[in-house]
Specification:
Sulfite Reductase Hemoprotein, domain 2, 5-stranded antiparallel sheet, Sulfite Reductase Hemoprotein, domain 1, alpha+beta, 24% helix, globular
Length: 382
């Protein structure tokens, strides 16, 4: 297998990560929402302090790319004025919460997100930096595929449950118990050795035989999961971004349409209150758009770990995919953009592309050392 470096941590505003195109600065908006003013401010800062590119991550965070060493301090000052910087690095690292975007002010999702953020700020749990929470309390469970270790969600009867990722059933709780139960489950994870290497995740801990105590376990079945597409929803218009990346001018455009933007882990943004789909060259609005079924990481040269360019190839292959097929193009075997399986996964190596069918970048490939033209012929023929 090709060697690569696993960082074990995620970038943040206070601790950026060096990439091939400069520093990457990650923002964790509270409740998964940006006010229009915050979004406009981010767009301006990305243009002034970075290269103008903004990523929407699989954890519903934003990343400002291409930040220079000499502009990082000015960027942090600007973000702090927008209310987007935590008091310290440890607090920022622990506040990993994905929030389902279809909440209304005063409902369970909105209230639990604020309560959990406060609880995490008050208690240092010693969690690994990639450890996170999902709050998925709307009428439909939409975050089933989002990366999270502890989930507050609905059961089949509409009640609240707290569930450890990797455990099929959760503990039924009242709304007033949900956050404290989630925090107790996080404390158990640390106490039982799940965080000992600094990179632990709940599902892997459970798979290795760890079992939550009876006081935190339960038998409530989570509600059926649904997937979402661009379109008009009860809270506004859900629009897609090809490969989860956009220009600062596009974020500024979307901010000008609404009072706020809600971020999602699906490479989509919910524009609050819109009843018609907006039109812009940099956004995806059709559910059938093949780019929505293609995942590609940053690739070379922006990522120093990548062996090849990824997104131009992915965009060229997208129109040739069958309607039910998903493609993942990864610059290396890490699979940062999508660690899970796809129908076809292409993995960049020093010798070309490895092709994996119905697997992830770390699975055994069916073909090795393919050129870009080989790949186009294989995928285009399907």
């Amino acid at each position: 297998m090709t060697a690569f470096a696993i960082k074990g941590w995620c970038p943040s505003a206070l601790r950026p990560m060096l990439s091939g195109d400069g520093l990457v600065v990650r923002l964790r908006p509270r409740g998964g929402r940006l006010s229009a003013g915050q979004a406009v401010g981010i767009a301006e800062l990305a243009k002034r302090c970075g290269n103008g590119l903004i990523d929407l991550t699989s954890r519903a965070n934003l990343q400002i790319r291409g930040v220079r060493e000499e502009t990082h301090e000015a960027l942090v000052i600007g973000l702090d004025r927008l209310g987007l910087v935590d008091d310290d690095q440890a607090m920022e690292a622990q506040r990993n919460i994905v929030v389902a975007p279809f909440w209304r002010e005063g409902d369970d999702t909105y209230a639990l997100a604020a309560e959990l953020e406060h609880a995490l700020a008050m208690r240092q749990l010693g969690l690994p930096e990639k450890f996170g929470f999902a709050i998925d309390c709307g009428p439909r469970r939409v975050l089933a595929q989002a990366s999270a270790d502890i989930r507050i969600e609905r059961d089949v009867d509409g009640g609240l449950i707290v569930r450890a990722d990797g455990v099929p059933q959760g503990r039924a709780v009242a709304g007033t118990e949900a956050v404290e139960t989630a925090m107790s489950l996080a404390e158990w994870f640390v106490a039982s050795g799940g965080a000992k290497d600094g990179r632990g995740r709940m599902a892997a801990h459970v798979a290795h035989g760890a079992k939550p105590p009876d006081t935190l376990a339960g038998h409530a079945e989570p509600a059926a999961a649904v997937s979402l597409e661009p379109g008009i929803h009860r809270n506004g218009a859900l629009v897609g971004l090809a490969f989860g990346q956009t220009q600062c001018k596009t974020l500024d455009f979307l901010a000008g349409l609404a009072s706020g933007l809600r971020l999602t882990p699906w490479r989509m943004i919910l524009v609050e209150g819109l009843r018609e789909m907006p039109q812009h060259e940099d956004i995806l609005t059709r559910a059938a758009d093949p780019l929505l079924r293609v995942v590609a990481c940053t690739g070379a040269p922006a990522c120093p770990e990548a062996h090849t360019e990824t997104r131009k190839l992915a965009a060229a292959l997208a129109p040739h995919l069958a309607p039910d097929m998903r493609l993942h193009v990864s610059g290396c075997a890490k699979g940062c953009a999508l660690p899970s399986a796809s129908d076809i996964t292409l993995v960049g190596t020093p010798d070309g592309f490895d092709l994996v069918r119905n697997g992830s970048p770390r699975d055994v490939p069916a073909r090795r050392g393919l050129s870009a033209s080989d790949v186009r012929a294989l995928v285009g023929a399907r």
